[in-house]
Amino acid sequence: MTDSTTISPPSTRAATRAERRRLVESVGAHRRLSAGRRSFELADLRRLNREAGRRARAEARRGKALQRIHEKQTTRERSLTAKLNGLDGKRAAKERQALAVLRRESIERSLRGTRLTTSQVNGIGGGLVRDLAAQGITTAADFRRVSWGKAPSGRGGEVLYIHRTQGRKVHINGIGEHRGRPLMEWRRAAVARAEARAPQELPADERHRVEEIIENERIRLRDELAEVPKDAEAARAEVEQLHAEHLATLAARERDALEEASLRRAEFDETADRLLTLRAELAAHVELHGDLGLRERRARSRALRPVPAALPAIPAQRSRRHTPEGTGAHAEPGDSGAAPGTSGAAQAAPAASGVPEGAGVRAGLGWLVPVAFFGMTTVFGAGETDDSPLWFAVSARLVALAVVAGLLWLWIPRRRWRTARPMPAGTGWLVSGVFLGLVAASMFTDGAERDGGAPWALAVVAVLLVLAGVGLRSSRGRNDSASD
Q: How many CA atoms lie less than 13 Å away from 249 in the CB half-sphere?
């Protein structure tokens, strides 16, 4: 019995061949359309991975910006607090400075009031007083000291020079050692009297002025310190707003891409259903009319070749997991995701919802120190002597080279912003243990230090450090596995 859906037999052989040709060409065309599904699914998988990468980079930038704000806030608060705590010392310093200025001004006034006369300096008469006045020296404030030097003409012996307070040194004919010494004693006595008369304490009005300056500074620093958290909070709010806007933009782009992918996937589903229908019609046509020749069989075999397998897990599970909140996208009931290939799709889905712990925190540049040290050990060895065996020299260099390679393998990806993370826990313990182990091994190969207890102590400490590093690495790995 023939099914009611089958095509009724054509009236002529030509019509049968034409109908067969139409069915074969339709099956071939739909097969070629369905063959593009695998490429589409792979492209969609790459799209989802790119979206997850964009979200991870956005979170890393946000974390980096928040970390900078926190560091800036902490530094500013520490600086302002230190300034507030140092205001008392600053007040005392300002008072000492103000008192020193008052004393200096008082001494200057007193010296300017002490005039040089013949009655005050022994051995200096009216003529020398006039000669000194002609050179601008009339009071004790006009010169500072006397010294010996060559005569201005360059001939003869040394003469006495008087160093003026403002200006160059001068020589007065008639003033030598016998008259220069009394002149300096007169000035020292005038300075001593001026210092004794100068104020020893800061007046009340000056002290009040300094206190007012310090209090105004304290109020300003307190206000500035109170503004630091507000500024930091405003900066964080700005970062969060920019991050939210960026995420919204990403979500809109992801939503549009998901809708386009869903439409494309629906077209592939429709094509697959149509291909099944055409194959059923072709099978019914062959059953009804039989074989129509070699050429028809070849065309039919090409059209009925199997379609390359697609990735059935991507449409259902990956799209649903990766869909941002609020998009309303959901999987169709008929889409199941139990086929192989689900693992690669499912692994990228958690990355879209968050970033790894420590993202945005790059490994420090301090790790270059052990890299440089073990690199030099690889070239120059670990302290070998002439008595060191060859196996120790080779083994030490190989161990150092392995440490350098391992550190660079861990450190370089963690310096890039896209994959920024801290160094694994326990790495420092392991590096320190290997370093002490090399030192202990070099001491064991040295005949002078072999019999002492230092090599054994270093070896024990090296073993403990290596065990501690391995324990930290393994416990961190178990915690990561449990969290996954």
A: 8
pLDDT in tens, 44-93: 889 999 999 999 999 999 999 999 999 999 999 999 999 888 888 888 88
- The pLDDT tens digits for 280-331 are 888 887 877 777 777 776 776 766 767 666 654 444 334 443 444 433 333 3
- H helices of 4-36, in order, are 13-35
Q: What is the pTM of this model?
A: 0.45
- DSSP string covering 350-409: HHHH---TTTT-PPPGGGHHHHHHHHHHHHH-SS--TTS-HHHHHHHHHHHHHHHHHHHH
364-382 as b/e: b if 16+ CB within 10 A: eeebeebbeebbebbeebb
- 229 contacts 142 by C-beta, under 8 angstroms: no
Q: DSSP per residue over 177-221, as a string? A: HHHHHHHHHHHHHHHHHHHHHS-SS--HHHHHHHHHHHHHHHHHH
- Can you tell me which residue has the tokens 């925190």? 361
- 3-7: which pairs have CB atoms within 8 A and are 24 or more residues apart? 3/284, 5/284, 6/281, 6/284, 6/285, 6/288, 7/281, 7/284, 7/285, 7/288
- Of 412, 324, 326, which Cα lies nearest the Cα of 58? 324
The H or E element containing residue 339 is none
For residue 229, which of 335, 81, 123, 344 has the smallest C-alpha distance? 81
Structure tokens at 108: 């200057």
* Cβ neighbours of 462 (radius 10 Å): 20
Give the integer Cα–Cα distance in Å for 436 and 432: 6
3-state SS track over 223-269: HHHHHHHHHHHHHHHHHHHHHHHHHHHHHHHHHHHHHHHHHHHHHHH
Query: What are the tens digits of pLDDT across the range 325-382?
Result: 433 333 333 333 333 333 333 333 333 333 344 444 678 888 888 888 888 888 877 7
Yes or no: say if 239 and 60 are a contact pair by the CB < 8 Å rule.
Answer: no
What stretch of H or E contains 149? strand 143-150
Cα 337 from Cα 41, distance rounded (Å)? 13
User: Which residue in 114, 124, 113 sits closest to 172, CA to CA?
Assistant: 124
Residues in contact with 459: Cβ distance below 8 Å, sequence separation at least 6, in sequence order: 436, 437, 440, 444
